[in-house]
Amino acid sequence: MSLSLVELETVVREAGQIALAHFRDLKNTAIHKKNPRDFVTAADLAVEAYLQAVLTEKYPQYGFWGEESGQSANQASRWIVDPIDGTHSFARGQYFWSISVALEIDGELMAGAVYAPALDDYYTAAKGQGAFKNGQAITVSAEASLADAMVATGFACLRAYLTDNNLARFGRIAQQTTGQRRFGSAAMDLCLVADGQVDAFWEQELNLYDVAAGALIVLEAGGTVTDFQGNAGVFPKQILATNGKVLADILALM
Question: Rounded to whole angstroms, how far apart are CA atoms 85 and 214?
Answer without folding.
Answer: 11
